[in-house]
Design brief:
The chain has 10 helices and no strands. By secondary structure, it is mainly α. It folds into 2 domains: 114 residues, no CATH class; 156 residues, no CATH class. Helix 7 runs parallel beside helix 9. The longest helix is centred in the N-terminal third of the chain and has 43 residues.
Length: 272
C-alpha cells in the first residue's frame, strides 16, 4: 500500500515538474503562432481584406502559400530565407516578431504564473505588438486596437495589483503620462508625435502599475539613443528630418520597466 502511494506521489511530482518545465515552451509556441496571425491582421487591416478568411499569399508573386510554409520561425530558416514559389528573398521581419512575442509570452508566464491576470496580459501584449507593427508600417495607431489594448491593460493592472486601492493609485500616474504626451503633441502642432501616442502610454502605464513612471523614463531614453543613431546614419549634408514612430519606444520602455523592475533613479544615483 505504501509502495503504491509512494509511486503515486512520485508520478505526481514528476508530472508537475514536467509541466513546470514545458509550460514556458508551450507559451513561447503560442506567442509565435499568435504573432504570425497578427502579421496577417496588420497587413490586411483597413484594406478591405478579411483577416479571418482567405489564404496567405507570397508578397512577391502572389502565389498561395502551403501550410507547411507558414510554420512560425521554423519555415523561414528551413526555406533559407527565400520563397519556395518564386525564390524571392524574404524579410526577417516575420520571424523576428514571432520570436519576440513568443519570448514575451514565456516571460509573462514565468513572471505572473497561472492566474487571472495572465490571459489579460497575453492579450494586452498581443494587441500591443499589432499596434507597434501597424505604427511602423503606417505611422498611425488604429483606434479600435487602442481601445482593446487599454481595456486589456486596465484589467491586467487591476488583477496584478495587490488591492483595488493600489490599482486606483496608478490611474493618476497614467493620466499624467498621457497628458504630458498630449501636451507635447499640441505644443508641437503634431510635429513631435501623434496624439494617439497619449492613450497608448495611458494603457501601458495601467499595465505596468508601480513601474509606470520608470517605463515612461526608459521610453524616452531608448527613443533618444535610437534617434541619435538614426541621425548619425543620415547622408552627410542632408537636412531632411527623420520621422520615427514613438509606439515601439513606448512599448520597449514600459515592458522593460515592468519585467525587470529597474528603477531609473537608482541607476542615476549609482552612476553619480
Amino acid at each position: 500500500m505504501y509502495a503504491k502511494e509512494t509511486r503515486g506521489y512520485a508520478a505526481g511530482f514528476c508530472y508537475h515538474v514536467a509541466m513546470f518545465q514545458l509550460a514556458p515552451f508551450a507559451f513561447f509556441a503560442l506567442g509565435a503562432i499568435i504573432a504570425s496571425f497578427i502579421g496577417v491582421l496588420v497587413a490586411r487591416l483597413n484594406t478591405g481584406q478579411g483577416f479571418l478568411t482567405g489564404r496567405s499569399r507570397c508578397d512577391a508573386c502572389n502565389a498561395p502559400l502551403k501550410p507547411l510554409f507558414l510554420i512560425p520561425i521554423i519555415s523561414y530558416f528551413t526555406m533559407g530565407g527565400r520563397a519556395r514559389c518564386c525564390g524571392a528573398s524574404l524579410t526577417p521581419y516575420a520571424p523576428i516578431t514571432e520570436f519576440l512575442l513568443g519570448f514575451l509570452f514565456a516571460l509573462a508566464y514565468n513572471t505572473i504564473g497561472f492566474s487571472v491576470a495572465l490571459p489579460c496580459m497575453l492579450i494586452s501584449i498581443s494587441v500591443l505588438l499589432a499596434l507597434v507593427m501597424y505604427d511602423l508600417a503606417h505611422q498611425i495607431l488604429p483606434t479600435a486596437l487602442l481601445i482593446i489594448f487599454i481595456i486589456g491593460s486596465a484589467l491586467t493592472g487591476f488583477f496584478l495589483a495587490g488591492s483595488a486601492s493600489m490599482f486606483y493609485d496608478t490611474i493618476p500616474v497614467a493620466v499624467l503620462v498621457a497628458f504630458f504626451l498630449a501636451l507635447i503633441h499640441f505644443l508641437s502642432r503634431g510635429r513631435a508625435m501623434g496624439l494617439a501616442d497619449a492613450p497608448l502610454a495611458f494603457g501601458l502605464a495601467l499595465m505596468s502599475g508601480t513601474a509606470a513612471l520608470s517605463g515612461f523614463i526608459f521610453s524616452f531614453w531608448i527613443g533618444a539613443v535610437i534617434g541619435i543613431i538614426m541621425l548619425a546614419q543620415r547622408p552627410q549634408g542632408s537636412r531632411m528630418g527623420v520621422e520615427v514612430p514613438l509606439a515601439p519606444f513606448l512599448a520597449a520602455g514600459f515592458l522593460l520597466a515592468y519585467f525587470t523592475q529597474w528603477n531609473p533613479f537608482t541607476l542615476i544615483a549609482a552612476l553619480s
